[in-house]
Structures are given as structure tokens and as C-alpha cells.
Amino acid sequence: MAPKKSPASSSGINHAAILLLTIIHQLLGGLWYGQLFKDPWLHGVGKSLQDVEPKKHPALFLIPLVAGLLLNYVLAGILALGPGPSVKRGVVWALILWGGVILPDTLTHHAFIGAPLMLTAIDTSKELVGLLISGVILGSWTANKTKAA
Length: 149
Description:
72% helix; transmembrane helix; transmembrane; DUF1761
């Protein structure tokens, strides 16, 4: 018997979880690049803090918002397929997406632009953390909603 779909959506995708995760990804980016790795990241991209002020380039802050939304919908869509969502499947698929898509793509782009290895490590590890958070939340929230239905 196939698992019941989440009450949040007939497709099995929990849209509330997606919106929450999009906000979490934005907050993670702010913490990651604005606090934890601000100086090495700015050095790696060759910019000053003034160069990346939201007031100067507000449209640039829409890109990670849309990217976070898309990334979380893709992961949620993958989890909606197959035997049913779980934290384990969420984490496994997060690792697969990171190791098979994000990491190789970022390594390639950073190699061609001559980015320092530290910048690559900062960028890819932020994406890994974000995807793992998404995998856990989508796997557990969707799984809990499915069980409750």
C-alpha cells in the first residue's frame, strides 16, 4: 500500500516546509557569509563589506531566495517519490545532491575563475549544511504529516 500523501499537498510536497526552509537558507547564508566566514569569504572574492551591501545591490539578494526555493522544491519532489519520506532518505538525498551536483559544479566554476580553495570550501560547505538541514526537516516533517494523515 502506497504511503498517504501529506495533507499539505496532494503531490506529497509540504509547501509550508518549503517556505520555512527557504527562510532558514536565507538566515544560514547571512550567518555563514555575514558572521562565521565574513572575512575569509570577502578576501576570497576580492570584495569589501561595502561592495556587498544590500542597499547597493538588492536584486542580488533575490537570487539566493529563488535558488533556496528551487533547491528545496527539488529535494521535496525527490522525497515525495519512492517508498515515502524519512529523515534517513532526506539526509541521503541531500548528500547525493551535494556530492553529485553542487560540489562538482562549484569546483568546476571556481577552478575556471581561479577562486582560492578556501572560497570553494566556504561556499560548498554552506550548501552542504543547508541541504542537510533541508533533508532532515523535509524528511521528518513530511514523514510526520504523512503518518498523521
